[in-house]
Amino acid sequence: MHPSRDRVIAAAVEFAKRSHPRDEIFVMTFNEQVQHAFGPAVAGDMNPTLFRAAMSQAIAARGMTAIYDGILAGLKRVSAHTRQVLIVVSDGDDNASSATLNTVIKQVHESDATIYTIALIDPLTREGDPRLLARLAKETGGESYRPRRLDDVSEAFERIARDIRSAYTIAYAPTARSVPELHRSKGPESRRTVRVYVRSKDGSALRVRTRDGYFEPDRRGTP
Q1: Separation CA 118–CA 147 (nearest Å)
Q2: What is the pLDDT of residues 131-150, one digit of tens each?
Q3: From 22, 34, 64, 194, which residue has the greatest number of CB atoms within 10 Å?
Q4: Based on the number of CB atoms within 10 Å of its own CB, is 186 exposed (0-12), middle (13-18) or buried (19 or more)?
Q5: Do 37 and 143 have their domain in common?
Q6: Does residue 13 share a domain with residue 43?
Q7: pLDDT range class, residue 218, cuts 50, 70, 90
């Protein structure tokens, strides 16, 4: 984080400016502990100078990394909203969390949040876990970015802001026969996999990103 700190702060300020004026934004930081850094605040009412100052004070390039705890805290915070987006900026490595990776993955699957990730990997040490960050994004319908240069961090935030403002919501009501049993997990809750295919008017296939599944509560014994 140390060589990327100033660029991340500047990019986050620009992200807030490009967000929908009625979007609500908050920031949490994590080293050994997860800490509240800013917000929540409505984007249209935010003062960029005060936001930058709060970020500069909160983001410190020292200590260990409790990314698992940070993700869980972020998911809990966004759960109060209908549309939920979590942006994770990290190298993906964890060496201080009390939570386990399995707990994080389970909570990610159970949430309605779309996760975008920005992997900050030191080109010299190459330490980190960008595959975890890519997995979180893929399984929630988000996007994962791995900037090669510091200047690319701003572009990643810009693309995320644009993506959030151009998303669509599709809903359906599944039946017991709508998904084969082989696509369902066994246990108290069943997890259904979901695939969405989209074609343009001329019939050509379009690339679409969605969550890869959801949990269906066990209704056995329900009248």
Answers
A1: 7
A2: 999 999 999 999 999 998 88
A3: 34
A4: exposed
A5: yes
A6: yes
A7: low
The beta-strand segments (E) located in 47-194 are 85-90, 114-119, 144-145, 189-193
Chain segment 152-189, per-residue pLDDT in tens: 999 999 999 999 988 888 877 777 655 454 444 455 56
Of residues 154, 132, 152, the one with CA closest to residue 144: 132
| Domain, as residue range, for 56 | 2-165
Between CA 85 and CA 111 the distance in angstroms is: 11
The phi, psi pair for 82, rounded to 5°, reads -70, -55
In a shared domain, residues 110 and 219: no
Other Cβ atoms less than 10 A from the Cβ of 45: the count is 9
pLDDT one-digit tens code per residue, 42-66: 999 999 999 999 999 998 777 788 9
- Six token digits for residue 153: 């961090």
- Pairing outcome for strands 85-90 and 114-119: parallel
Q: How many CB atoms lie within 10 A of CB 203?
A: 6
Whether residue 102 is found in the same domain as residue 184: no
Torsion sign across C-alpha atoms 20, 157, 151, 14: positive
How far apart (Å, rounded) are the C-alpha atoms in residues 104 and 62?
A: 24
Q: Please give the structure tokens belonging to residue 124.
A: 């010299």
Rounded CA separation 179/176 (Å): 7
Residue with tokens 């993906």: 92
Tell me the residue type at 115: I
Tell whether 82 and 112 lie within a shared domain.
yes
